Amino acid sequence: MTALTPGRAPQQPDWSDPGLLDEVRRTLGSLRPLVTEEECARLSASMGRAGAGEALVLQGGDCAERFRESNPCDVGRKLDQLYHLARGLGAAAGVPVVPVGRLAGQYGKPRSDAWERVPDGTVMPAYRGDAVNSPDADPDARFPDPARLLRAYECAERVLATVRASWDGRETIERAHVSHEALLLDYEHPLVRQGSGARFASSAHSVWIGDRTRSVEGAHVAFAASVANPIGVKIGPTTRPADAVRLSRLLNPEAIPGRLSFIVRMGGARVRRLLPEIVGEVARRGAPVLWLCDPMHGNTVRIGKGLKTRPVGAILEEVVAFVRVLRSLRRHPAGLHLEMTPEDVTECVSTPRPFSALPPLPRYRSACDPRLNAEQAAEVVGRFASVL
Ligand code: PEP
Ligand code: MN
């Protein structure tokens, strides 16, 4: 696809050992692809059906996947949740639902703040995902270690084995695929492989570009433009309509249905205020895109000592606003992108705001952003189905 001069790459770790990094990149370049070109093409076809309004997409999983959860038991539970929600949405909407996990590679995190003050007052580098450093509150553990990129590959390989085992007895469109944010270019670039025609990212069936790295001139967008996989771009509140148009053309120059998803994450009020013009301009002047709703990242609030949470009420409101805006412009609301877990966590809060007291969050286990638990995720998917 498009060849571009690589631009600036924001949000890259300050790797502690450049010699080791080179060796790791060479090793990654010699390993077998994690996913096949055919698997990616099947997801493209399914996404194409969603683009045509004949299917929906349910993308979801942890904010930050953990290496220690790459075992069949933990992954099996995550897949059960994804399949269960997809089945419910499909039954309610009367169309097939494409399940896509934040799985098998969601090991790199962009951070607004490069530093973190831990509860005892020590300041240390922020956690950037298991592929970079450890979330432990220990300055040594926070050093970016390039060897972790190889562990990310190995863990992704294990997760994929469980994902593929779950395909037995399912129609192609109902099979779970894997996706993650293409953030760590020292992982993504060496894993690009030549396919039968185009080059493809062999790190996942689909990757997306985050809201902090979606600059049209930046290295992440250039990377996405250079691979044939279905790709996504997060569309946050600072996205100008003209940026969205340029991104759509740059990332989908051949106007392939299902190639490009815009994953809108603004918060409900901004969806109502800003999204109509973006959707309208992309429809008028841009290339085809699938519109997905991430109702999580525009609804994060800090409480107490900086702990992040998300009010479920605000998440539901954004889902409703998203569907109404898309419908009013005669576009298909093609699906949801959620941070969720089958675990019985209390990370997002169901009580209405403003909080009269700090909501108790006794089972907060996320290494990064607050996830919906099983019940909350079902409520959000149910709301989406009911307003469709
Ligand atoms: C995420 O999906 O975890 C994330 C960091 O999202 P965004 O780029 O939209 O902030
Ligand atoms: Mn997140």
TrEMBL record:
UniProt EC number: 2.5.1.54
Cofactor section: Mn(2+); Co(2+); Cd(2+)
SUPFAM superfamilies in alphabetical order: Aldolase
Binding residues for phosphoenolpyruvate: R102, K234, R265
Record family assignment: Belongs to the class-II DAHP synthase family.
Reactions the enzyme catalyzes: D-erythrose 4-phosphate + phosphoenolpyruvate + H2O = 7-phospho-2-dehydro-3-deoxy-D-arabino-heptonate + phosphate
Domain of life: Bacteria
Region (Disordered), start-end ranges: 1-20
Gene Ontology biological process terms in this record: amino acid biosynthetic process; aromatic amino acid family biosynthetic process; chorismate biosynthetic process
Record bears the keyword Transferase: yes
Keywords, alphabetical: Amino-acid biosynthesis, Aromatic amino acid biosynthesis, Cadmium, Cobalt, Manganese, Transferase
Keyword tRNA processing attributed: no
Molecular function in Gene Ontology: 3-deoxy-7-phosphoheptulonate synthase activity
Gene that produces this protein: SidSR-25
InterPro entries: Aldolase_TIM (IPR013785), DAHP_synth_2 (IPR002480)
Residue positions binding Mn(2+): C63, H297, E339, D369
Protein name: Phospho-2-dehydro-3-deoxyheptonate aldolase
Cofactor binding note from Swiss-Prot or TrEMBL: Binds 1 divalent cation per subunit. The enzyme is active with manganese, cobalt or cadmium ions.
